[in-house]
Write a structure and sequence with these properties.
The protein has helices at residues 3-7, 55-75, 123-139, 157-170, 180-187, 190-201, 241-252, 270-284, 290-294, 296-316, 329-346, 348-362; strands at residues 16-21, 29-35, 42-47, 87-88, 97-98, 104-109, 208-210, 219-221, 227-230, 237-239. By secondary structure, the chain is α+β, with helices and mostly antiparallel strands. Bound molecules: adenosine-5'-diphosphate and magnesium ion.
């Protein structure tokens, strides 16, 4: 279907002048819709149904979250078209349009004059990232909504261990025998990791609305460098706030690559960690519970451990989940993430101290 015809399926203001590929993002195909003078421009996306499903429920989740934030932005005298995503419905009122190939499309208002960053390479940017994620969590901290779980088992280590045991029992490509040491990395930390997840299961850690894709390129900043809003809300879920914190720290603090073949490159950057923690806590201190705060530093280890497990499990399973660029790619990833985990473990006391000291500075 022609992109302009697709655009015409949505309730747009103004006349469509042009639709062109934006060429950013990894999951969805993103286009910008340019309209005539006086009307907003828009973002058109083909939503990736191979990664998230069902898309209609996912769009419903996004709508629940954005309308809640919008109300708060308006109440605070902010700009509801810039400080939160605005989903634009299709002409039939649905939040998506399904084309003749059963592909799903969605539209939101393009927020103009923003700055985005590809990576949080400096403490300043890491601090800004912490503010962005913290602000998002703060906006939804009073939203009591049951969202559709579009990625079941996400960050649920009990579920991962079930998959892990099944894959190990099957050993479909005979790789297990050569991996005693790596399997030991997982097994030796099992209790500790399950213990953390139990706190979530038994309600000691509250269920909140979380973003689950905390990369800094999902945060829009204004020209002055202030956080406007968090975008890419496809993965909003009910889970623990610590999943966002932990995943951000796994991603932001790594001095090397996720699949770095040179393990000397990989470590956890404490300055990046501290800066993110400061930005995050400034926004979330008013509502996080003592237990959440107590486990912040742990959550970075938890999410990194989970990733070690998932890469190793996929390697043993014969590489069915992650795309690989070489036969041992998943093993390289396993080792690189394990190196990061070890670096976090070595600096764990300091990570906890950083949380306490940041809090003291905020009071
Ligand atoms: N509402 C918006 N306003 C301005 N830019 C946007 C908007 N939505 C997306 N973008 C831009 O498009 C890119 C890709 O969109 P995103 O929703 O993050 O897709 P993906 O899931 O593929 O990462 C973003 O990184 C951002 O640069
Ligand atoms: Mg994105």
């Amino acid at each position: 279907m022609d992109l302009k015809d697709l655009a015409a399926k949505f309730q747009l203001e103004g006349t469509v002048i042009d639709v062109k590929a934006l060429g950013e993002g990894f999951i969805n195909d993103t286009y910008t819709i340019t309209t005539g003078e006086g009307a907003p421009n828009y973002i058109l996306q083909r939503k990736n149904k191979r990664v998230f499903s069902p898309i209609p429920a996912m769009m419903e989740n996004i709508q629940i979250v954005t309308s809640h934030i919008k109300k708060k932005v308006i109440a605070a005298g902010g700009d509801p078209l810039r400080e939160v995503l605005t989903v634009v419905p299709a002409t039939d009122g649905k939040l998506y349009f399904k084309d003749e190939d059963d592909e799903y499309w969605a539209v939101c208002i393009l927020i103009e004059d923003t700055i985005t960053y590809d990576a949080a390479e400096t403490p300043e940017l890491s601090y800004a990232g912490g503010k962005g994620i913290g602000k998002f969590q703060s906006m939804v901290s009073d939203l009591d909504a049951q969202l559709t779980d579009i990625i079941p088992g996400f960050h649920n280590i009990r579920y991962r261990f079930k998959q892990w045991d099944e894959v190990l029992a099957k050993d479909p490509v005979g790789r297990k025998a050569g991996l005693a040491e790596e399997i030991g990395w997982i097994e030796s930390r099992k209790e500790e990791m399950l213990g953390f997840w139990e706190l979530y299961e038994n309600g000691s850690l509250p269920t909140r609305i979380t973003h689950n894709d905390t990369k800094i390129n999902n945060i829009l900043f204004d020209k002055q460098g202030n956080v406007l809003c968090v975008i890419d809300l496809d993965t909003v879920l009910n889970s623990t706030a610590l999943n966002d914190f932990g995943d951000a720290m796994r991603y932001y603090t790594n001095t090397g690559l996720e699949d770095d073949p040179n393990l000397d490159n990989v470590s956890m950057d404490m300055a990046i960690y501290k800066a993110f923690t400061k930005g995050y806590l400034e926004e979330t201190i008013s509502f996080l519970t003592d237990t959440e705060i107590e486990y912040l530093a742990f959550s970075a280890k938890y999410i990194t451990y989970e990733q070690v497990l998932r890469f190793l499990m996929d390697y043993i399973d014969g590489d069915n989940y992650y795309k690989i660029k070489s036969p041992d790619h998943n093993l390289v990833r396993t080792k690189a993430q394990y190196k990061l985990l070890q670096s976090m473990e070595a600096q764990y006391e300091e990570m906890k101290k950083a949380v306490v000291e940041t809090l003291a500075g905020l009071k």
